[in-house]
Amino acid sequence: MGTGRMEAFSDGVIAIIITIMVLELKVPHGTDLAALGDLLPELANYVLSFVYVAIYWNNHHHLLHACDRINGAIMWANMHFLFWLSLIPFVTSWVGEHREAPVPAAAYGVVLLMAGVAYLVMERQMVRENGPQSVLAETVGRDRKGLVSLIGYVAAIALAFVSPRLADLIYALVAVMWIVPDRRIARRVGS
After folding, report:
1. Per-residue pLDDT reduced to its tens digit, 81-94
2. What is the 3-state secondary structure (H, E, C) of 130-154?
């Protein structure tokens, strides 16, 4: 089967995730910049989470455009991926309210780690369905950035119990690494 329906469903879920995240933001209690300053940690966490969702949306788009067909296993892998993405608003809010607490910072990393693992599983299912000589298989190849990301998440989860801010820094660095879409796929499919 084609990828259109899965892409449309995923786009809708991701749009809802972003909407939930922005609705969780609190309005400042005052009308001056100082009132906004009190919310800067929560805003920073929102921006980081928005960037992560945007990165996944962008790469998901490119991945599906390199994929000729999907099957039931891919659809379930996609649902697994969307499940972990759907938890981002929850952990974003939790970390935003408890910036110095290690457990929320670690939970944020667990969600990012599991979203990364789920994306990798989905990607591998797509390669399996489309064949080793497919455009997708040739462009995905070895996913070094994906592996570095997973290692970064694991390190950040452990470091969250030493310094939640250091864990946040690692999460931000991994996001910066992914800001540019996966050019391997974009070059091959022209999307």
Report:
1. 999 999 999 999 99
2. HCCCCHHHHHHCCCHHHHHHHHHHH
